Amino acid sequence: MDVIKQIQQAIVYIEDHLLEPFHLQSLSDYVGLSPYHLDQSFKMIVGQSPTEYARARRMTLAAKEIISGSSRLVDVAKKYNYTNTNEFANDFSDFHGVSPIQVNTKRDELKMQARLYIKLTTTEKPPNAYRLEDTQGISLVGYAQFVDSDDLENPFKVPDFLEDLLNEGKIIELQRYNDISPHDLFVVNCPLDEGMEIFVGVPSERYPAHLESRFLPERQYAKFNLQGELDYVVNEAWYYIETSLQMTLPYERNSLYVEIYPFDISFDDPFTKVQLWMPVDQEQYLTDDY
């Protein structure tokens, strides 16, 4: 139930600070989730990111004030922290598709966002199967990429990084260093205080100087076998986990999680087989850098 409570707290915080500039890091600090897991959990449960929700609510309240005629446009712009009326009008038009001076004649076209509340529902959809498995520690070598908290909303962070490595021939290179089992491509997503690290690597007993190294400690994981398009398969699994499993699966929301891919990844294959490992204990992610 913790994640439901935290997302509800996030909504309350956003509602209480609509007249202030929105910062994902501040919201993250308030609810006690890393920026990455907050952004991901919020999107999976609410259907939009915290930034998108905050903007939609501000634009909705601004539209209501303009419709009521209780405030001048310049005062509304100032109230919502815009430096001038033109800046506000441009943002308003970009969001609603209607300019501020058109709101009274085109009210039906306004994209009004009601304040959201979280509730639990039941479903007849069968659950995704997973197994709990104790896994020995694994030494990895590979490439790391830091993602700033401002960029966490991109749902294609991992596929984009994999595609870059594939195009640069680095996945083939990593395969040559995969000299111990399991013989797969590991993607480790590790939340940090101001963003996250994506590490793509392979199990190896060699540590070449040009590659970074990480160590996954021995721990228990909930392991999901997934199949689908590489760009979407993990996000779809996350949606199921956040909306259906968060009460029964004691996974750590501020910890790393692991994705396992085949070396012959294809962005055109709708049946790519992927594993998702969710940690269910208190072990820490060990790295040379942290």
TrEMBL record:
<dbReference type="InterPro" id="IPR011256">
    <property type="entry name" value="Reg_factor_effector_dom_sf"/>
</dbReference>
<keyword id="KW-0804">Transcription</keyword>
<feature type="domain" description="HTH araC/xylS-type">
    <location>
        <begin position="8"/>
        <end position="106"/>
    </location>
</feature>
<dbReference type="InterPro" id="IPR029441">
    <property type="entry name" value="Cass2"/>
</dbReference>
<dbReference type="GO" id="GO:0003700">
    <property type="term" value="F:DNA-binding transcription factor activity"/>
</dbReference>
<dbReference type="InterPro" id="IPR009057">
    <property type="entry name" value="Homeodomain-like_sf"/>
</dbReference>
<dbReference type="InterPro" id="IPR050959">
    <property type="entry name" value="MarA-like"/>
</dbReference>
<dbReference type="Pfam" id="PF12833">
    <property type="entry name" value="HTH_18"/>
</dbReference>
<keyword id="KW-0238">DNA-binding</keyword>
<protein>
    <submittedName>
        <fullName>AraC family transcriptional regulator</fullName>
    </submittedName>
</protein>
<keyword id="KW-0805">Transcription regulation</keyword>
<dbReference type="InterPro" id="IPR018060">
    <property type="entry name" value="HTH_AraC"/>
</dbReference>
<dbReference type="InterPro" id="IPR010499">
    <property type="entry name" value="AraC_E-bd"/>
</dbReference>
<dbReference type="Pfam" id="PF14526">
    <property type="entry name" value="Cass2"/>
</dbReference>
<dbReference type="GO" id="GO:0043565">
    <property type="term" value="F:sequence-specific DNA binding"/>
</dbReference>
